[in-house]
Amino acid sequence: MTDHERHIRELRRRAMRLPLHPGVYLMHDKSGKIIYIGKAKALKNRVSQYFGSEKNHDAKVRQMVAHVEWFEYILTDSEFEALVLECSLIKQHSPKYNILLKDDKGYSYIRVTRGPWARISEAKRPADDGAEYIGPYVSGWTVRQSVDEALQIFRLPTCSRRFPQDIGKKRPCLNYYIKRCCAPCRGKISEQEYAEAVREALDFLRGGSAASLRTLEQKMREAAEKLEFERAARIRDRIAAIRRLGQRQKVVASSVPEQDVVALTQGGGRSCFEVFRFTGGRLCDRETFFMGETGEPKAAREEFLERYYTLRGRIPPRVSLDGPAQGAELLARWLSEKAGRRVRLTVPRRGEQAQLVEMCRSNAAEQLAQTMGRTGREASALDELARLLGLKEPPAYIEAYDISNLAGGENVAGMVVFENGRPLRQAYRRFKIKTVAGQDDYASMREVLSRRLAEYQKEKDTGAGFGRLPDLILLDGGRGHVSAVQPLLDAAGLRVPLFGMVKDGRHRTRAIAKNGGEIAISSSRSAFTLVSSIQDEVHRFAIGYHHTLRKKAAISSTLTSIEGIGPVRARALLRQFRTVAAIRQADLAELAAAPGMTEPAARKVYESFHPGAE
C-alpha cells in the first residue's frame, strides 16, 4: 500500500467518526490553505464519500481529494444555516476547487463627442477628452446593444473617417449601400440634418423606443404639414426601423416581467454558464461564465446559483433553469430571504419559458464551442444527447458498431468514431467475424466488443487508439444488442454508457435503446440529427467493407475455377496484375513469369480467357 493510499484510508476513518448532523466542512492542503468548502445535511455521510472508491468521483473531485491533507468542520442547527455559512465562507476564502465567479460587473457609459458631426459610442469609463458621458449603466451588454441599435436606426457612421475633413475624399463604405449609414463622406447630408439625427438617437437611448416613436411621429406630421416631404420620409424610415427592431425583440421577450434564465453546457473538460436577465419583459442583460470541470450538472447548478447570487444584488422573483439543481428547495428559501420576497426556481418543459431556456442553452453551447474550436451546433447536439441519455457530461468520444453480412456470408463489422461531434476517420476500424458461423448478429456483436475490450487491456497505458475508452458506445440495433454486450462491460469493470440505435421500417433512426426500454429522440432535434448521422456513417462503413470482401471473393472464385489454379496461385496472380482485367490482357509469357506460376498453369489461365487461341 502506498503512502497516499494509507493517507486516504486514514482520512476516511476520521470522516466515519463525524456526526450525522448538518454542517460545513473545509478541506485543507499541505500548506494549510482551504481548497474546498462544502455543506452537508449529514456530515459523516457526505465527507466519507470523498475518501471512498474513486470510481464514484468525477475528475474534479479526484483531483481535489488528491490534494487534501486534512479537513475540519463546523456544526450548524440546520441544512439551511449550513448553506448560508457555506456561501459566506466561500466568499471569504475563495477556495480553488469551488466554482468561483469573477465579479467584473463594472459600469458602462454612452460616449458622445462634442461639436459638429458628433459620434456616439460605448465606453467603459469616462475620460478627460471633452466628450459627454451618459450613464453610468450597470449592464455593458445593454449599452453595446442600445448604441448599435441607435446607430443602425438613425443611420449614423461607425467608421474612423473624420468630418468635415474627409467629406468628398473617398467613396462611401458598404454601410451606405445597405442603408445603415447616411454617409456624411458623400456630402449629401447637411450638418444640421446630421445634428438632428444625433439628437434623435440620444432621445432613443435615453427614453427608449416607445418615447422615441411618439416624438418621431409628431415630427413626421409637422414635416408633412410644412410640405417638407423629404424630411418626413427620412423620419418615416426611422419609425419603421424602430418598429422592425421591436418585432425582432419579441423573439427574446418574456411574459414574466422580471426573471433570470440560467443554462449550463459542458464538454471537453470545460463548462459554460449563460445567464439571461429580463426586466419589464425584455432581455436587458446577459452574462457568460467559463470554467473548468464542474462535475455532475445538478450539483454544478446549485453551486453556480449560490456563487452568482452572492455577487449580484438584484434577485428576480423567478429563476428558470435548464435542468434540476441539487437542493433546489433550500436554494429557493435562501434566495427568498435575500430578496425579501418569494423566489421560485423552475425547470420549464414547454411553452414560452421552455423556448427561452433552450435559447439560453444554445447560446451557452455556442460560447463554449467557440473556445474549443467547434461549432455551436455540434456542442449543442452533444449536450442535448447527454441530457437525453442521462450522462454526467456530453460524450466527447463516441464509438459506434454495426454488423454486415448476407445470409451469414462474409460476416464483418465496422466501428466508427465521432470526436466532439465530428467523424474521426483515422480511428475507424474493421473486423472480420471469426467465431460466429451463419447469421447471428448478437453473437457477432459480442465477439467484436470482446476483441475491442481485449485490445484496450493491452493498450490502456498508451491512452490512444484502442487504449482510449469511449465516453459512449452506440450499437446499430435494439435492446437485444445492448443485452448481448452489456455483460462484457460489466465483467471488465468498465462503466461506459451503452445504448442501441433503433431504426424504423424505412431504415431511419427512430429511438435509442437501453436495457429495459427505449428513449424517443425525434423531439430532440440536435441529438436526433447527430445520432442519425452516426448510425448512417457506421452502416455505410460496415456495408462498404462487406461489399469489398464479397467483390474480392467473387474475383478469387473466377480464378480458382480454372484448372490448376488454387487459392494461393489466385492471390499471387492478383498481387502481380492487380485486376482480373489485367490478367485477361496478359500474354502467355507474362503469365508464366508471375510468382508461383508454371508454364502449364499459365497456359490454362490464358486459354480460359482466350478460348480457341493456339
Annotation keywords:
614 residues, alpha+beta, GIY-YIG endonuclease, Nucleotidyltransferase, domain 5, 5 domains, 8-stranded mixed β-sheet, 19 helices, 19 strands, 19% strand, flat
Question: What is the secondary structure topology, with strand pairs?
Answer:
Blueprint: H1 3-15, E1 23-28, E2 34-40, H2 43-50, H3 59-66, E3 70-75, H4 79-93, E4 108-112, E5 120-123, E6 132-137, H5 140-153, H6 174-177, H7 191-225, H8 229-249, E7 259-267, E8 270-279, E9 282-291, H9 297-311, E10 318-321, H10 328-339, E11 344-346, H11 351-372, H12 376-389, E12 397-406, E13 409-419, E14 422-423, E15 429-432, H13 441-459, E16 472-476, H14 479-492, E17 498-503, E18 509-514, E19 517-520, H15 525-560, H16 567-577, H17 580-585, H18 588-592, H19 599-609
Helix pairs in contact: 1-2, 4-10, 5-7, 7-8, 11-12, 12-15, 13-14
Q: What is this structure, in a nutshell?
A:
This protein is of the alpha+beta class and 614 residues long.
Number of strands: 19
Largest sheet features: 8 strands, mixed
Could you name the CATH topology of the largest domain? Answer: Nucleotidyltransferase, domain 5
Shape: flat
CATH superfamily of the largest domain: UvrC, RNAse H endonuclease domain
Domains (count)? 5
Number of helices: 19
Helix/strand/pairing class, anyone?
alpha+beta
Beta-strand fraction estimate? 15-25%
State the separation between the terminal residues, measured CA to CA.
Answer: 83 Å
Helix percent band: 40-55%
Q: Give average pLDDT, whole number.
A: 83
Radius of gyration: 34 Å
CATH architecture of the largest domain: 2-Layer Sandwich
Poorly predicted runs? none
Q: What is the CATH C level class of the largest domain, in words?
A: Alpha Beta
